[in-house]
Design a protein that fits this description.
mainly alpha, 40% helix, elongated, single chain
């Protein structure tokens, strides 16, 4: 099942925990950013 998901992801792999943490830190550190849904999904929503 995971292989099928990876095959349909434009990035060609699943995102890492480090990438998710980086996105969260970005949103927490930038007080000018609010009301944003940041998709950290390897491009899944682009398909």
């Amino acid at each position: 099942m995971i292989e099928a998901l990876v095959a349909r992801t434009p990035l060609g792999r699943l995102v890492t925990m480090q990438e998710i943490v980086g996105a969260v830190v970005f949103l927490l550190d930038n007080t000018g950013v609010n009301g944003v849904n940041l998709a950290v999904d390897g491009g899944w929503l682009l398909r």
